Amino acid sequence: MNDILKELAQILEARKNESPETSYVASLYAKPDKMLEKIGEEATETIIAAKNDDREQIIHETADLWFHTMVMLASKNLSPDDVLDELARRFGVSGHDEKASRE
Fold it and tell me: What pTM value is reported for the model?
């Protein structure tokens, strides 16, 4: 299931060497505040789609949210595997217990 995430992560890494004038991803790397704003924008659009119970929009907006989040991860030299490893660590742990361990 995560092969596409690995492929996308490789592309996002390669875009670090591209020109912001020719690559959307490179333009986000060049403007970190814009990159973070995009995550907020896509999160809001995902929430609205879910509130409207619009299945197609939920999928579309979640894909946008994941994409922009992956750009942010790559900008911080993190990968989807870092997040998946954290999810695996939490697997089988009560959400309440996991949250309390971070406080």
Answer: 0.87
